[in-house]
Give the backbone structure.
Amino acid sequence: MNSHAILAIYKFEMSRTLRTIWQSIVSPVISTSLYFVVFGAAIGSRITEIEGVAYGAFIVPGLIMLMLLTQSTMNASFGIYFPRFTGTIYELLSAPVSSFEIACGYVGAAATKSIVLGLIILATSWLFVPLHIAHPFWMLTFLVLTAITFSLFGFIIGIWADGFEQLQIIPLLIITPLTFLGGTFYSTHVLPPFWQTVTLFNPVVYLISGFRWSFFEIADVSPMVSLGMTLVFLCLCLVTIWWIFKTGYRLKK
Amino acid sequence: MTSIISISGLSKTYASGFQALKTINLDIKRGEIFALLGPNGAGKTTLIGVICGIVNPTAGTVTVDGHEIASDYRAARSLIGLVPQELTTDAFETVWATVSFSRGLFGKPKNPAYIEKILKDLSLWDKKDNKIMTLSGGMKRRVLIAKALSHEPQVLFLDEPTAGVDVELRKDMWQVVRDLRASGVTIILTTHYIEEAEDMADRIGVISKGEIILVENKAELMRKLGKKQLTLHLQKPLDAVPTELATHNLALADDGNELVFTYDTMAERTGVTALLSDLARLNIRFRDLQTTQSSLEDIFIGLVHNGAGATS
Ligand SMILES: Nc1ncnc2c1ncn2[C@@H]1O[C@H](COP(=O)(O)OP(=O)(O)OP(=O)(O)O)[C@@H](O)[C@H]1O
Ligand SMILES: [Mg+2]
């Protein structure tokens, strides 16, 4: 195990984040606050509560997930795409590091950033609504697992992408819609039965549901199913990355 | 001398279908400076890329100090430092940070004293806290060299290290290379400045159109293929080489004012004496004479133009 290499990549990525610390933190915090104002105030005045939870509080886990998914994907994909774009990837390819170690460095850094961001957004929410976290341990577990899983996913996107447009397209066209439709702002129980079944094909439903359960003990699906689905997705990403480095897909000429 | 790199049956066909390397067999000896020469597009960078793990070979095997580059990549790559041809550097990192990063990436614990030494040797010490994007092209090139040396490699690949580096710094750089060699590091370099290869290399390999067409000790090569020319500046111009002199390898130059005799320094008899007495007999007088020896550059151009046939 080349732990020096993992640490080197991790530190390199973290210093990249620190250089742009204000953009990295301020913009998600502002947009979350906007969601609160728009959804919390506008809709919250009509829907006062969902399944016994005040609407303002109900949307907090969904909002954190929304930020977590988009930020993890974008950070990790950019982190690995940039060296490909500039050509500095040569060093990574010629170094005595395994695919696992490279992924650890990049994904670890991207996940760290989005976990910190998630916690900042949680703290920001506290300014707007009173919150109670029923299962802090599970809350953190879901937070960390989701951050890692989607950083892995972003890492794959960063290797697959052939241009900056493709880099943007997945978070914009897939993750954001799936999150919005996955129960960020409502319980899927309010949908007609047919659409409830359709939502079960949306992986984000399981993430949001499990995360929300750790706050309020209300869930669209069982928290264990949520955990299982998260782990399945995590493994899928790991296998894909292993395959990418084994074959050199998009990395080696 | 044992070989540190063994390449056998190596070929590379790119995804485009272009075959950049035909069957390459090559051994690099431990501790030598090996210059790989060849025209643009010959396959030098591709060959280096395969050895370093950047290009997937289509067939063949490469071992570095006995470690196969695919199955035992960790051991093989730890031994190698690579200075790529393209100036690819981070932009926002400082010189110090990027060189330290490289050391870590290759699995070595921190050693600030060693990095300080490299930066000083490469005249980069006063730039250590500058962002890379604020450096000039030649400085960036040296940063790449510092990165490659950061993990104390046993084998160093220099893919055109002197492109864009000024004369004085080039001298410094070659001094660094000589010192490395003296400390036992094997060096493989490519360059389009043939006189540099002539200066530096122990052995020369010439690659053309994906094939190694010659590998030879430099001294041997210079002796074998080096031609000497004797130029006689005539007192009176000639219209043509007199038929009496047809047996000598002569040519006229400078509108018949110069008579050029090309001969082989390796031959038992060079034919100089015979030529001079023939000239005296024909009463051809000359004002001055001069001899020149072909450089590696001439040899190289001859080789690449005539293909492999010229050598053996
Ligand atoms: N990624 C690639 N895809 C397809 N063909 C390539 C690729 N990279 C290089 N080639 C081709 O392979 C051949 C060898 O290229 P290479 O870069 O190895 O040459 P070189 O000897 O290093 O040349 P130079 O002196 O210009 O650096 C060239 O014809 C080049 O066009
Ligand atoms: Mg090249």
Observations:
- The mean pLDDT of chain B is 89.
- Residues A 253; B 14, 16, 18, 20, 38, 40-46, 85 surround adenosine-5'-triphosphate (ligand 1) (CB under 6 Å).
- The interface with chain A takes residues 14-15, 49, 52-56, 73-78, 80, 82, 84, 86, 88-93, 97, 100-109, 147 of chain B (CB under 8 Å).
